[in-house]
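User: quick one - fold this with magnesium ion bound?
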Amino acid sequence: MQTTRRNILKLSTAAGALTALQNCAPSDSSGSAPAPSATNANPTIEQLDQAAAAPLLNLDGITSPVIIDSIQLLQRGKEQIVQVRSKDGAEGISFTNGRPNFRAVLEDRIIPFFIGKDARLLESELLFALYRHRSNYKLQGLGFWSAQTWVEFAILDMLGRVAGKSISELFGGGVRKEVPFYVASGRRDSTPEEEVDYLTQLIEETGAKSVKFRLGGRMSRNQDAMPGRTEGLIRLARKTFGDAIDIHGDANSSYDPPEAIKVGRILEEVNAVFFEEPCPFDHLEDTKKVADALTIPVAGGEQEFSDRRFRWMIHNRAVDIVQPDLHYYGGMIRSLRVARMAALAGMPTTPHISGGFGFVYVLHFVACVDDVGSYQEYKRGIERYKDWFEPALEIKDGALSIPTGPGVGIKDIKAVLSETKPIA
Ligand SMILES: [Mg+2]
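Assistant: Sure. Structure tokens for the protein plus magnesium ion:
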């Protein structure tokens, strides 16, 4: 069974993977190594490394150094913003993933490193130099990579504004203009009936054609959130929504393989799209056992922070869909490298993201990756930001539009910055 499923998956994504590799290559001829040009159902470690290492950023048109002069963390209501400025007055901002406990890493390890550096060297030199700087590699993990991401996103916003290109265009861009999404429920305190009511509300509010709900008890050693909730919810969701709504299930590390396979079979019965994080997220061998046993695609990787472990997951097909979190994994460049490796192996990359402004970064990411799976994660919030963009961001037929303006696409960052204050 597993061989058939995986072969089908590989065959169905092979053509798309080739396009993806081409689309994320810079269009210039500045001596960069070309992107790998073929999909390989069983790529070697060397081939995966080569795919990940191929240059991504196209900085055509930025002919003078963009020297970073200041980086500052700012508060805007409940949100935090990172602002970067160049010596010549170029500017960019990013939104954090709301993890203020990573601030010390940002201020102690990351900001001082970037001051005085040429932002154009971000991909080719700076990210690896930052990793080595003051032995930062010893801090490798979600805290370090999140803080790096805040700065990377702000620098990409600045470079995009200088080049007159959107962030996705800096990476090739243009793969798609709209992004079908699932709306995600974050609840486990609900009975199946309450949860289906809640999902119905989310669908009505957002126009989603797909949902994701939580299974199991969250890192719970097979305990359900309440007796019978998981099986009851999966079946009731399908019965209530019929075939009109696609279903995703996320176990948040709840199960060992036997229990995960049992739950996975129920998801297969209702024809769910994927089964996310069935086993403890870093138990890659158990996750692979589940993926091998089931026909439903297993998705995972939102808490992965090592490029070589992602490479292992892809090389060994521990999952069927990789899910780097754009913040937790260290930003667009690192996450696109995972997508490059996945594409070579014929696997979709469906990025993970926290709420707030985060979905905008997913829109840029999926605009330059061919095979991103059927739906992207959306946790609501477009109403707070849509009018900052020109044209305004919108949802149509269960899909989000992609920003087209320079940088992240916010047309007036001064207006956003005018509502911020320095963090004391
Ligand atoms: Mg998840």
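One thing worth noting: The chain has two domains: 68-169+412-422, 171-401.
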